[in-house]
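Fold this sequence, please.
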Amino acid sequence: TGDASLEPGLFYRVRYGADIQFISLDSSKQSWLFADRYFKHKNHQPFIDAVLPDDSAVKWRIPFFHHPPFCAGPNHFNKESVSDYFLPRFVRAGVRAVFSGHQHNYQHSIDNGIHYFVSGGSGKFDSEQPKSSHFGKAKTQAWGGNEEGHFLLVEIKDKRMEVTPYGNLGDDGKLRPIKINVVTGNANVPPFRIEV
């Protein structure tokens, strides 16, 4: 089951059992310059309050939208208008993982115990690397996907989520994870694990 908030933009929630809710949040603007993002429109405030309440009763609330709050480039960077509005709401609602696109590579950031994934490599990829000078501000843990397209396989089993970015088929015809570049110095390689 699900519900939605329409015009302007598109916001909806799809529930999968009692433990998982996918939440689509429209981060677009009505016009390219000097306009507020759709999520700030008064029509959507009741919906946003309902899908991101001040509790963690739902085990997996999974927001997804286009413009990432954390991104180290190379062409797009942190979207402060998105982070200023949503990050406090994500914390209060017990969100553990957020998915965005916009930048055509893979990036994994962590802020306040919430994992932020940029996955914009399904339609094309950008061969230029993220800017290391932005890793700190973007809270980047790891990145990849600038050498090939990719998609994310997300598996949820009770209190654990595993995220694996897969790229081109290997020589044996099987799926293989993309090459991951670790920023933190930790063994942060696929699958990326999140616990509630």
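The two ends are 23 Å apart (CA to CA). Residues 151 and 166 are 5 Å apart (CA to CA).
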